[in-house]
Structure formats: structure tokens, C-alpha cells
Amino acid sequence: MDPENEFHDDSRKELSTEEFLYRTGWVMLPVMILMGYVTLRWIVPNLPDTECIVFKFFGVYCPGCGGTRAVIALLHGDLLKSAWYHPFVPYTVLMYVLYMLSHTMEKLHVPHVKGMLFKEWIMYGMLVMIGISFVMKNVLKFGFGILL
To answer: What pLDDT is stored for residue 139 in this prediction?
Structure first.
């Protein structure tokens, strides 16, 4: 027996990135539904009325400002309000739905449907969206006096 292959087990196959993300997506779905229910039912009604620490001390919106309000708006089914508060939240949900739906359809052998591949531009899109949101919120505040 070759010593280099002594611990090699052919019965274990590595999952592709796409398969790993797909399986993780299905595991996370009930977790996220449960977290959404708990958030709306118990956490949100008991949240103190506090503002962002960055906003409180420095007077500027941080890159994450509006994220909590966006999640709450989305959980209430208000997609437009969620996008207004922080576009990262509905963008992330949209990418999740497209990814999971395309892979599920491919696994069900729906003709001409291929699973969406994970690409770096998806992550860069998220970063750009966070940056644009950060700049726009502060331009609205300082340039026009509009508080969000």
C-alpha cells in the first residue's frame, strides 16, 4: 500500500462550493424564519428607542445605519420601505431567493434552467450598495437637512 494514499478515503467526496451554499441555504431557511418570528414577536416590541452610536457621537450616518429598520420593514412585508432604509437587506434576500430557486429548479430537472453560480460581483455589489447608501444618507442629511 502506498504510504501517501494510506489515509485517502475515496468514499468521501468534497462538496462543490455551489452544493455547499445550496445545502447551507436550506439549513438557514428555517433558522431565519424562526429568528424573524422571534424578532417581530418579542425583540422589536421590547427594544429601547435608541439611535446609532456613530450617529449619536459623531452626527453622521454609519454604513450600517438603517439596517435594523430595513429588516423590520422587510419582516412586515414592506419591500420599498426596507430598500429605503438600507438597500443591502432586500438585495441580500433577493440574491438568496434567486440562488435557491435556480438550484432547486435545476435539481428538479426543469428544462433550460441552470443553478446560479456564486460570483465575486455579488459580494462587490453588496459593498458598493453599502457605500452608496452611506454616502446618500449623509448627503441628504448635510446637503438637504433630511434625516432618515
So the answer is: 94
Q: Give me the pLDDT at residue 52, please.
A: 77
Count of domains forming the chain? 1
Largest CA distance in the chain: 76
**How far is the C-alpha of 130 from the C-alpha of 144, rounded, in Å?**
21
Which band of pLDDT confidence, cut at 50, 70 and 90, is reported for residue 147? confident
Q: What is the pTM (predicted TM-score) of this model?
A: 0.75
* Rounded CA separation 81/73 (Å): 6
Whether the CB-CB separation of 82 and 68 falls below 8 Å is answered with no
Would residue 33 count as lying in a domain? yes
Give the structural domain span for 95: 17-43+60-144
Q: What is the pLDDT of residues 92-128, one digit of tens each?
A: 999 999 999 999 999 898 898 888 888 888 888 889 9
Q: Rounded distance, CA 42 to CA 74, Å?
A: 17
Alpha carbon distance 29, 99 (integer Å): 13
Cell numbers 416590541 correspond to 45
